[in-house]
Amino acid sequence: METTHICQLASQLRISQHKPSVLTLSTDTLSSLLSSFTLIEEQSTSFQVKQPHNFKAELLRDLQYLSNYIQQAKTFKLYWSPCEDPCLDLTKFKNVLSIEFCKVDVNCVRGLQALRPQLRKIVCQKTCNCLADVLSNCGGDQSHAYCWNELKEASFINNGIVEVDQSLECAPWLHTLDLSHNEITNIEALSCLHNLKYLNLSYNKLEGVPPLKGQICSRLQNLILKNNFIEDLAGLRTLTNLWVLDLSNNCLVEHKSLLTLSHLATLQWLNLQNNPLSWHPNHRNRTASYLHTNTASTHFVLNNAALTKSEKHLAGSYHPHQARGGTFATDSVNLASDKVRRVRHVVIEEENAVRESRDERLPTGQRQYLETKRQIEDLHEKFGESWLNSQSGLLDVLGLEGIAVGLSTSPYEADFTIYSGDFTSHKDEVEKAEEVEVDDENINEEYNEVDTPDVSMEEPDVEEESIYLATVKNETEPVLLVVGQTHLSERECSTSNERDKWHVDSILSCEIIDEGVTVQMDFETMRKDRKQRIYVFEDEIEAFVARVKNKINSRTPKKEDDVKYQCMKCSTLFAKLKNGSILEEEAVVKCPNCDSTLVVEDS
């Protein structure tokens, strides 16, 4: 650096009177200053003190001032510029606490090893290819790995880092780490940072969130993962103290992938913008249902907007249930619909085989009880429903005297009364008009069927109900649409209670709108709140519309006649279609010529 530039720089710093807190220099300027400081060293080592020339004395004063200024600087920023000597020495910065490198090759910088015990923040932008160049080797010093005792913040932006290496173990006290704009695919090595609270991994190549281990799971509070290729969020389950989570601009397709969010009890800020699932028409409601229940009592922000009251009501509503086959059900709504259509399957085994197998496993006392029960059933089969009244002496034989036997409440009691009596006579001698041909095996089967419902007894001619899942527009909770033989009804998913009901004859139209996910239905009714419904479907929308239109087309056509009217005002004769509405109230007839309502029906 020329002497005139040194004097100008010193004079500007004196005029500004700023404290030497932040100093920003280019590599060329720093290299020139370091070479100029040799004059001060030569002056201090001379044995004979002479009165220097006035100009030289002024230059030495300016150099001494700049040297003191550099030594007192707390923050030093160095950016690249063309220079003759690329090797730079930072030993002059004795009190610096924060260093920032921009486009400077860190391997050409010496002095970091001496500053390692005192540095609190280091920023490296386009300076290194791996973390070990700075944290382990200390740049051009090429030192051995040693602990950075005071380092709290570190930023390695846009360095082309592919892997997070084990050199992070040299910075155990880091609480803020920025690794954005790199090419990182795995972050498992971050588990060694037990005190990390803020982590920025945006603009990398992560395809999922790998599970972290150790104390970082309870310390990490802010996690920025935007602009990656993330599809799996399983690793978030262990981050129990997370406050802020940014997942925008990723590859999350289905809301089911947000199930891990239900474990984040302290989460207060979430961003899912520009993910494929964010374009779902019911995105906010679905996302709210996967959040933890604590979000309902906090000022939770989703996609830069606070949760509404209805969305807070949905928070924590999704809880996975264990299915019968050992797998988890994917949606509580599906469970509700399965409950409505639940069918019991009955398997009838041979009576004797069941009794023998039970007798082998039961002790002696229970065996005697079953033997007594078998005798009673045989007597009931032989003498009919009134076997106790006609055979009162059997009470003494079986030891049941004094026990009051209640009347049967079985729906087959009338049949048993007909069948009671002596069946020893031949079946061919029974009269057709008064008696019924009966088989002993049929009696046992009908008797056993009293306690066991049979699903095959349904009426074959009754049309089965069709159930579809949809969400009413401007509402949050889904409903079940049940299309029956004569009515269309809305039912709640959780309780199956009926909310609204329409006769199929009142359906005017059923059309698909809004890019094939919404259905608009119009009804002919007097109630304004039931004249129209707009439903949002996830699937089976075509099946629902086809079923409803089939109902509309299969209706019995209404009787419609042309009626002749005459206007009393202008004597105009006209014909009008008679109102065929199912409503009792008919529309007002007006004259097409003068719009008068004073018209009479012409017979």
Commentary on this structure:
Helix 1 (3-16) crosses helix 4. This protein is an alpha/beta fold. The protein is built from 17 helices and 24 strands. Helices cover 26% and strands 17% of the residues. The strands form four sheets. The chain has a twelve-stranded mixed β-sheet with strand order 1-2-4-6-7-8-9-10-11-12-13-14. It has a seven-stranded antiparallel β-sheet with strand order 18-17-16-15-21-20-19. It is elongated and about 125 Å long. A hairpin with a 6-residue loop joins strand 15 (466-472) and strand 16 (479-483). Among the domains are: 206-320, Ribonuclease Inhibitor (Leucine-rich repeat, LRR (right-handed beta-alpha superhelix)); 351-452, no CATH class; 466-553, PH-domain like, CATH 2.30.29; 562-601, no CATH class.
